[in-house]
Design brief:
The protein is mostly helical. The chain has a domain of 93 residues. The chain contains 2 helices and no strands. The longest helix has 136 residues. The protein is rod-shaped, with a radius of gyration of 65 Å. The chain starts with 7 loop residues before the first helix and ends with a helix.
């Protein structure tokens, strides 16, 4: 039963040991523990602050990325509009050039046809003239076969010349 009922000396020395241990802990250990806790709290606070800054930067980066994405889409749409406009312009220029070229070909064909028509007309006139001369030669040759007809023709030509003068 002595184990369960300590004596006064044991209690005194336990109290003294506790007081010394408490004093040592209070003087040197407690400030070190508090310093460690404070530094850990500062580290945690800095980590939280760093996380908040990182979150703000991430949010800002997302906003910036969204802005750049919108700007890129706007520029893409502008480039597509510009390309479509250029395509339309090139097609229109090609169409106008083709029309001009076709008009030149048609004008050249008209000139060629007109020239061919004039040449054919001239050839026809030449042939008609040749035929007329041949016919006239044959008629005159037949009419001038006798001397009487020759004299009559010469007299009629001289009379015509006198009337014209």
């Amino acid at each position: 039963m002595e184990l369960f009922t300590p004596d006064f000396g044991l209690i005194f020395w336990m109290f003294v040991a506790f007081a010394v241990l408490f004093f040592i802990l209070w003087k040197w250990a407690w400030p070190a523990i508090m310093k460690g806790i404070d530094s850990r709290a500062d580290f945690i606070n800095k980590g939280v602050e760093y996380a908040q800054n990182a979150k703000e930067q991430l949010d800002h980066a997302r906003e910036e990325a969204d802005k750049q994405l919108v700007e890129a889409r706007r520029q893409q749409a502008e480039v597509l509009r510009e390309a479509d406009k250029m395509k339309t312009q090139i097609i229109e220029e090609a169409r106008v050039a083709a029309q001009k070229e076709a008009q030149k070909v048609m004008d050249a064909a008209k000139v060629s046809i007109e020239q061919s028509r004039k040449e054919a007309e001239q050839s026809f006139r030449d042939q008609v003239s040749d035929f007329a001369l041949e016919i006239a030669q044959k008629v005159v040759k037949n009419q001038l076969a006798d001397d009487k007809a020759q004299a009559k023709l010469v007299n009629s030509l001289l009379d015509e010349m006198e009337h014209n003068n």
